[in-house]
Specification:
This protein is of the alpha/beta class and 186 residues long. It folds into two domains: 5-86, Arc Repressor Mutant, subunit A, CATH 1.10.10.10; 107-184, NAD(P)-binding Rossmann-like Domain (Rossmann fold), CATH 3.40.50.720. The protein has six helices and six strands. The chain has helices at 5-16, 22-29, 33-46, 69-106, 118-130, 167-175, and strands at residues 49-53, 63-67, 111-115, 136-141, 157-160, 182-184. The strands form two sheets. It has a four-stranded parallel sheet with strand order 4-3-5-6, with helices on both faces. Helix 6 links the parallel strand 5 and strand 6. The longest helix has 38 residues, at 69-106. The protein is elongated and about 70 Å long.
Length: 186
């Protein structure tokens, strides 16, 4: 049986936390309440989860979702598959970004500004270092409008992670820089 990422998140949450209701499970697992309900019913039917009744509990908690030994085994099996698939996705993305950055390097662009999420900027910088590309990430900008504060001579090229309404021509015009300095990452 193959578990979805959401189903794995439910098993992982139940294994690491005490869960007293489906709303709490949905919040902790990062899924909707309806998804939590559907997945829990499936897991109860498969014997991965049991519902403990604690009505005599002085804290007035009426029930609790408990992972069974069978559920712990399922989580362990699927953790290996989940982690392996995420690492394969990461490796594929790293290869694609390295190829894109190498193509940029071939165009003799050296100093690069990046517009997008910081985590992507850090990822790109690590690829540049790992592949020993002749590129230098000279600036990080969360939004393209932040480029107005920087001298256009500080970079040869600006990589744009996000699609921008109005496109690259709008940005170039707004910033007063050459359109060929702006390159979408994808």
């Amino acid at each position: 049986m193959e578990l979805s990422e959401k189903a794995f998140a439910v098993l992982d949450t139940l294994d690491s936390c005490s869960v007293f209701n489906q709303r709490q499970l949905a919040r902790l697992a990062g899924i909707s309440l309806g998804q939590a309900n559907y997945i829990l019913k499936s897991f109860v039917a498969k014997g991965f989860v049991k519902i403990g009744n604690f009505r005599k509990n002085p804290h007035k908690i009426s029930y609790m979702y408990l992972l069974t030994p069978k559920g712990v085994q399922a989580k362990s099996r699927h953790a290996v598959k989940f982690i392996t698939s995420k690492l394969e996705e990461y490796d594929t993305l790293r290869i694609r970004l390295a190829a894109r950055l190498a193509a940029i390097e071939n165009n003799t662009q050296k100093r690069v500004g990046f517009v997008g999420p910081r985590i992507v900027s850090t990822f790109i910088d690590s690829i540049i270092v790992e592949k020993k590309l002749n590129l230098l990430l000279t600036g990080y900008f969360r939004d393209w409008r932040d480029l107005k504060e920087i001298d256009a001579g500080a970079y040869n090229l600006v990589l744009l992670f996000d699609d921008v309404p109005g496109g690259l021509n709008r940005i170039a015009e707004s910033l007063g820089i050459a359109r060929d300095k702006l390159v979408p990452l994808w």
